[in-house]
Design a protein that fits this description.
The protein contains two helices and no strands. It is mainly alpha-helical and 94 residues long. The protein has one domain. The N and C termini lie far apart (110 Å).
């Protein structure tokens, strides 16, 4: 009888330890999931910042190329492009 009582007590202690371990691991898992969510949000923000900075770089490149050329040259290029567009429209209308 004592042997059975000792075994039951041992099983009870082991079950309690398992429950404590389960709760601890479950809490750790929840914390890690929250951390993952937070890091994903930060990653999305950083990716958006990178896209915005890339757009700014492209705009600066474009504006830099315009600054290098004189405004007179830019106007001449625009007029040339407009004439080409007018020619294309005229050919389409024929």
């Amino acid at each position: 009888m004592k042997n059975l009582s000792v075994r039951v007590s041992s099983l009870k202690n082991k079950a309690e330890k398992l429950v404590k371990n389960y709760q601890s691991i479950r809490e750790e898992n929840m914390n890690l999931n929250q951390k993952i969510e937070q890091l994903n949000k930060e990653l999305n923000k950083k990716e958006q910042q990178i896209m915005e900075l890339n757009n700014k770089v492209n705009l600066l490149k474009i504006s830099g190329s315009v600054d290098k050329e004189s405004t007179k040259d830019v106007k001449l290029k625009i007029n040339e492009l407009v004439r080409e567009i007018d020619k294309c429209i005229a050919q389409i209308n024929k």
